[in-house]
Amino acid sequence: MTDYRSVRGMVDILPEDTFLxxxxxxxxxxxxxxxxxxxxxxxxxxxxxxxxxxxxxVTDIVEKEMYTFADRNGESLSLxxxxxxxxxxxxxxxxxxxxxxxxxYQGPMFRYERPQKGRQRQFHQLGVEGFGxxxxxxxxxxxxxxxxxxxxxxxxxxxxLEVNSIGSPAARGLFREALVEFLxxxxxxxxxxxxxxxxxxxxxxxxxxxxxTQALLTDAPALSDFLDEQSRDDFAALLxxxxxxxxxxxVNERLVRGLDYYNKTVFxxxxxxxxxxxxxxxxxxxxxxxxxxxxRDTPAAGFAIGLERLVLLLKGLEAQSVPQTDIYVVTAxxxxxxxxxxxxxxxRQALPGRAIQAHLGGGSFKSQFKRADRSGARFALVYGESExxxxxxxxxxxxxxxxxxxxxxxxxxxxxxESFAGANGE
Length: 426
Ligand code: ATP
Ligand code: MG
Fold this sequence. Notes:
The chain is α+β, with helices and mostly antiparallel strands. It folds into two domains: 15-167 and 227-315, BirA Bifunctional Protein, domain 2, CATH 3.30.930; 327-423, Rossmann fold, CATH 3.40.50.800. Helices cover 40% and strands 20% of the residues. It is built from 15 helices and 16 strands. It has an eight-stranded mixed beta sheet. Helix 1 crosses helix 11 (307-316) and helix 5 (136-153) packs parallel to helix 9 (229-244). The chain is elongated, with a radius of gyration of 28 Å. Adenosine-5'-triphosphate binds next to strand 6, strand 10, strand 11 and helix 11.
């Protein structure tokens, strides 16, 4: 017999967690709409080159993490490892860059990584992107949007904002030369990964986790000394806007981010609450990407949130209002079940927003009441023989509030509405 399991690193999200995801999605929808961002839905599969060219041939993602395959026609396709490339492709393809565009998308991303807490092979991102604005007010707004999401979810206190400017491509080129020159003199002190990166992607050495490499870097040339004037001014303006908005930040000179397409502003939101997988959100400006994809010169910036990590943060919070059944319907037998059916349908229409669960599968009153109790419902509605005869229903409080009452069918909706309104202090 075959023992079927989900693919390593690809997980099922079970009902005990889906309510957290729904809560997350609800807050996301509200906040993004408030800031004037519109949803775009993008395919999960794209031409491999779309990613290799934009993210960078010598990045971890492209070198070792992509799910790449040939389709039946021999074309190289990949499951998307991130969303920005697709979003830019769509903007160019549909000529959306005529006006300022503020877009968001959400969905699964795929990276072949070592699965661990907060790191999966299929994971989900919320991506938020703005096109057609060169000034740092866009960068500031994006940061404030992410902050509003944290506030809406009650995790703001758990997250720290780190910002940096990596300058223009030209400025970064000069810095790269200086960095390589410095590190080449200390090549033997570098960890293996960093030695390799010295040839391929030296800026990535800056976020090496290796202690000796980190120690070495304290004397390395500083990126901030190489910044072009425009990047310097824009960064100062960004910081002034954050301060004006009351948004705390930490400038982290080592922050460079792993993808090739960034310039000027980069930022990350990190937390201590998730161990090694502490980065919940990363983003920055990518002014060159639209032209690289054949579009008209269009400045742009964006960020992506790792939703699994956010859900882990939500799980760590004390109070979680697990949604539960409000009313559980108990019936004496098949005949009373049939009698109850249209009445319960009508009740659901009369009480939108109330979870009314009808018992399924028969069984004794005793076993049905046990289920009613476990459901967390406040009331059991009982349809028995006498209720049927008198066109009424018995309402039994399950949370020891008040007496059991029998009400005419046409009075029960109003009675329940009032009971729930009273309890909620509405
Ligand atoms: P990390 O350094 O943790 O690998 P990254 O720099 O590769 O992150 P980005 O490409 O910037 O990540 O993606 C944005 C966010 O998506 C990350 O900050 C993280 O929260 C989340 N993320 C990235 N890879 C994974 C993964 N394999 N599993 C779960 N979440 C992920
Ligand atoms: Mg990564």
